[in-house]
Amino acid sequence: MERRSLLAAGVGLGAVALAGRPAPVWAAAVPRLSAGDVAAGRRLFAAGAYARLDEVLPRLLAAARHSTDQGPAGAARAADVWALASQLAVKHGRSEAAGAYAERAGAAARRSGNPVVLAAAARAAATPLRRTARTDEALHLLEEARAHLTAGSRPTAAELEAAGLVALTAAYTAAQAHLPATAGDFAAQAEESTHRLARHRHAAGTRELTAGQCALYRIGIHRHLGDVDTALAAARRLRPEQLPTAERRARAATDTARALLDAGDAAGAFTQLRLVELAAPLEARRPSVRVLTARVAELRPGLPGLSDYARRTAVSPL
């Protein structure tokens, strides 16, 4: 009998609406995780469909527990699911849960032996680590992951991309810790990986590591280092079409809103918050973004449309 996919009533149906792809169907008595299941979950996250992903995540996690013991490929798929769960917990402001999921992602990634999967797990772990004042640990983990990826003389396209993404995460982490030289070095490494990836003959299809992604990170990096003018200059250079997903476009607008608030421009920040909602409505309801809305309301309570926006986004997606 043909094995059916995990997510008939979950990720598959959501992914159809978001990506126009055939829906997988659910029939397995014991959950079995496929690469398609993981990719469907990733598409929901990229689209900012966090409520839908919340609904199907328990199925993915149950399948991931079984998949960890199904050889290196199964462990790699499980690691991807745990990393996704960690990223979703971060979106909901749940740092403790994010850390627990990231720890499981790391364990599964080590079982896979795949340096690209290990890098993704390290990136997932970095956010809860730095949010709990463990920046040194986060940077060490990221540096170790990048070293594995760049050990060979001729990295694959996947390894180049993973190395660049790890460097971006490390740059942002260093900036939050007010380490300008370290942040600058990692940002430069990410941009070098981006250039090399663009020239790589096997780098086909949509990539996460792009010049636009590097520019997005520059906004947050310079803002955390206290250079708001440079952060806003990076924001002006960035074009939304350079970012391939709704989640990334919302992140760019969020980071720009933060920089504008630091510069005292509450009206400009509110314009960016509107763009957050336009790109991915549930992003505007995230706890950290609602804090920005409250700050704008405190500074400029009479801005046209602000009251309606605040009411619309006041309800958490949870």
Describe the oligomeric state of these chains in a short phrase.
Answer: single chain
- Which parts are unreliable, with pLDDT below 50 for 5 consecutive residues or more? 1-28
User: N-to-C SSE series?
Assistant: HHHHHHHHHHHHHHH
Task: Tell me what portion of residues adopts beta-strand conformation.
Answer: under 5%
Compute the number of helices.
15
Rg calculated over all Cα atoms: 20 Å
Helix fraction bin: over 70%
Q: Count every beta strand, where a strand is a DSSP E run of 2 or more residues.
A: 0
Gap between N and C termini: 38 Å
Label the structural class. mainly alpha
* Biggest sheet record: none
Calculate the mean pLDDT score and round it.
Answer: 88
Question: Shape, please?
Answer: globular
From the structure above, extract its key features.
318 residues, disordered N terminus, single chain, mainly alpha
Summarize the structure.
The chain has 318 residues and is mainly α. Helices cover 71% and strands 0% of the residues.
